[in-house]
Design a protein that fits this description.
By secondary structure, the protein is α/β, with parallel strands linked by helices. The chain is built from three helices and 14 strands.
Length: about 230
Amino acid sequence: MTNITLKNNEKRVLEYTKFSDVNLVLNEGSELTLKLANFEENSEIKITGNIGKYARISVVFADFSSGNSKIVSQINLVEEGATCDWHLATLANKKDNKIFDISFKHLVGKTTSLMDNYGVARDDSKIVFSGVSHITEGAKGSNAKQNAKIIVFDKNSQGVASPILKIDENEVQASHGAIVGQLNSDHMFYLMSRGLTRDEARMIITLGYLRPVSKEFSEETQELIEKAIKEAM
């Protein structure tokens, strides 16, 4: 397990391409940008965290694992002003089966969570996005938002997006959105009319769709991500 603890007002940026379970503790006023790129096979990873007073964490997760994988994250916003942003991009191909269960728990008022999950499913693969944003009783003034988008490339590939809001308090803001759809044929036609092959067009669309997350990594890790996408095509 990787244990990460930030002291009061400490600021850090960390990037990992090799990791297992992660446990996070952010104390008052601290800020962490955590970049995780997963290239392993048959991954099971658990991420847990407690975010303190006016502390902020931004998690950027690029998942290019293979086989069957399950990523479970539970981040608790335990003091006023705690904030968590989560941004995930994943690509599944062949017979990959990927499950992402990402949850936030607002335990006090004036806390904020944002979740963005993006996925591309090809061949006979499946991607599942689930998780709960829970605003507990007493957490007035909190804000929770979830977004999930999956592009399904082939007739046997599957995408499931199940964002859940659990609201036990009034005077809060909460929203969620989920889109699962097939590859846009107009985009494919446009690119192929410019001389690209079908595979080249699909790769360009995939790169563009996942780039908002991949661009946050170091140049070296971006090269690994691009290589993983090309190999999957």
